[in-house]
Amino acid sequence: MSSIGTRFSLAVGLLALVFSGFVLSRAWKTTHDHVEELTARQAELALEFDLAIRAYAGESIRPEMVKCLPPGAFVVEAMSTSYIARSVFEKVRKRFPDYVIKFASDDPRNPVNQAGPEELRMLRYFEENPEVDRWTGKLIMDGRECFAHLSPMRITESCMRCHGRPEDAPESLLVRYGSTGSFHRRIGQVAGMDTVAIPMDAVKTALRKDATANVLTLTVWLIVLFGSILVTFQLLVGKRLGAIAAHLQHAAEHTGDAPLAPLAAEGKDEIGVLAGSFNALAGRLRAFHES
After folding, report:
1. pLDDT band (50, 70, 90) for residue 1
2. Looking at residue 96, what is its pLDDT?
3. What is the distance in angstroms between the CA of the first residue and the CA of the last residue of the chain?
4. How far apart are CA 287 and CA 281, in angstroms?
5. Which residues lie across from 192 on neighbouring strands?
6. Maximum CA extent, the chain
7. Torsion over CA: 286, 289, 290, 291 (sign)
8. Would strands 190-199 and 144-154 be described as parallel, antiparallel, or unpaired?
9. With 0-12 CB in 10 A as exposed, 13-18 as middle and 19+ as buried, what is 63?
């Protein structure tokens, strides 16, 4: 026969495990969602910086360079928005080497901008949905799951000089990149997309470490709590109930003319009331036998 203390311990342990599992799952989900939100905000901020650099180069630097240079001249380092943005973010990548920051294209002039399979799929998506100018989500890039922010670059009239016919392009551009890459574009076509992607494996590793630490900490405190509950139950309930059970068992095994011995009635709780009631009953039995 299992004691009430054992059954109570099992019930408390089961409830503690269920509650702890619920708390851990909620904590994991909340932390995971929060980290993903922060990662998305980081990627979005990086993309907006990239687009701002590109816009400033195209709207402010290039017009001023045109005024200073001979007609038809083109200085890539100061007039190509893609080159300027990439050069700035190459310095940023030295600080954050895991980040993917590039201008992905299906026909790039610079091989480092060659779009991968997932990026080609997104280029087709932007081509088929001309009203979309931003996309956020997860992509597999170089075999790694990444949280990405994408923005397409569509060809405008001002782009045709460098992306139209090779014979119309600046000589300095042809000397640097040749006459094959990213030419023969049409107005409105998606020439590429600004890509900012943050690998999720580092984020998930940090989450797993945090979750492991939480589980270990919670396990230690559960053991302490469980032990404290057992000790408290034994002192307040188990010891007193055990004494009553032993007394009644002894009385049942030694029936005869000897009167029932009284119990030590301690406390004013239910157990104290039980002991007092037993003593009152034993007194009545003694009086009955004496009569």
Report:
1. very low
2. 82
3. 39
4. 10
5. 153
6. 134
7. positive
8. antiparallel
9. exposed
Question: How many residues can be counted in the chain?
Answer: 291
Position 152 scores a pLDDT of 92
Residues 6-44 pLDDT 10s? 777 778 778 888 888 888 788 778 887 877 788 888 888
CB under 8 Å to 95, separation ≥6 — which residues?
none
**pLDDT tens-digit profile of 144-202?**
888 889 999 998 888 888 888 888 888 888 888 888 888 888 898 998 898 888 888 87
| 268 contact partners, CB below 8 Å, separation of at least 6 | none
> Distance (Å, rounded) from C-alpha 133 to C-alpha 179?
29
Average model confidence (pLDDT) for the chain?
81
Model-level pTM? 0.63
Q: Using an 8 Å Cβ cutoff, are 92 and 104 in contact?
A: no
Collapse the DSSP code of 71 into the 3-class scheme (helix H, G, I; strand E, B; otherwise coil) and give the result: coil
Q: Which helix (H) or strand (E) holds 146?
A: strand 144-154
- DSSP code for 269: S
Q: Using CA atoms, how far apart are residues 213 and 210, in angstroms rounded to an integer?
A: 5
- Residue 104 β-bridge partners: 193
Q: Parallel, antiparallel, or unpaired for β 190-199 and 100-104?
A: antiparallel
- Of 271, 269, 262, 270, the closest CA to residue 242 belongs to 271
Q: Could you give phi then psi for residue 147, rounded to 5 degrees?
A: -95, 120
Asked if 13 and 226 count as a contact pair (C-beta separation under 8 A), the reply is: yes
Backbone Cα Rg of the chain:
39
Torsion of CA 278, 282, 283, 288, to 10 degrees: 140
Instruction: List helix spans (H) across the chain.
Output: 4-56, 62-68, 76-79, 81-95, 117-128, 160-163, 171-177, 200-233, 239-253, 270-290
Please answer whether residues 148 and 137 qualify as being in contact, where contact means their C-beta atoms are separated by less than 8 angstroms: yes
